[in-house]
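Checklist before submission:
- one chain only
- standard amino acids only
- sequence pasted in full

Submission:
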Amino acid sequence: MTPLLAIEKLEVVYKRSITAVQGISLSMDAGKIIAILGNNGAGKTTVLRAISGFLGIDDARVTDGSIAFKGRPIANRTPNEIARLGVMLVPERDKVFPNLTVAENLAAPLALGADRVERRRREALVYEFFPRLAELKARIGGLLSGGERQMLGLGSALVCHPELLLVDELSLGLAPLVVDDLMERLVHIRRELGISIAIVEQNATVALAIADYGYVLENGRVVLEGDAERLRNHNEIKEFYLGQVGGERRSYRTVKQYRRSRRWYG
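Returned file contents:
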């Protein structure tokens, strides 16, 4: 069976000289949630931008490997082409139009792509998943709270009727209760609409709580992958995200090398 998304030995280069992603391979089946984990600079956002076609805004390009959506090659295609195929990105930054109202933000992606009846149906669906947005229809996007902006970013993607939703750092800068609520809504969206979701997160705990499968990235490479439950209980992952050495977070590789040396000399 062909996976919904298949990435093979992906390499991405910025400014024709800086390699950000080196030989990454991952896949996901339809209806699943995957988590792509790692610290700043691991290559997580680059992977999402490569899938969604937004590499060009940072002068980057897929230089090797392949990306296929439903068996169709999509590497280095434009964001508009990829969105029409059913892949939508909720970026880490610039999630909303700050000078437009909530209602206008939701209407903007549909301006050329749906008739009035269909537009209203899709907007109503967003308000069903995010009732808070229904209360804020007339509020300017720039005046929304961080959690409300995340809701609106997700809603703006949902009105485009995606098959694959790419979500970049949903938890960034938000209180834990807000993050938990948003994650529960993603699970509800997956269950009700059958949408597949790829989540990029530094917060491994919240991502693995809802994911089916996870990939850990470091320095542009996959260093560990597995079922979410296995990763949640993986001692090295716990140390990678929770352990501190002299007040400084340890890398996965550092922890792994330390454990190997301890086994060797112990």
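Reviewer check: The CA atoms of residues 259 and 265 lie 10 Å apart.
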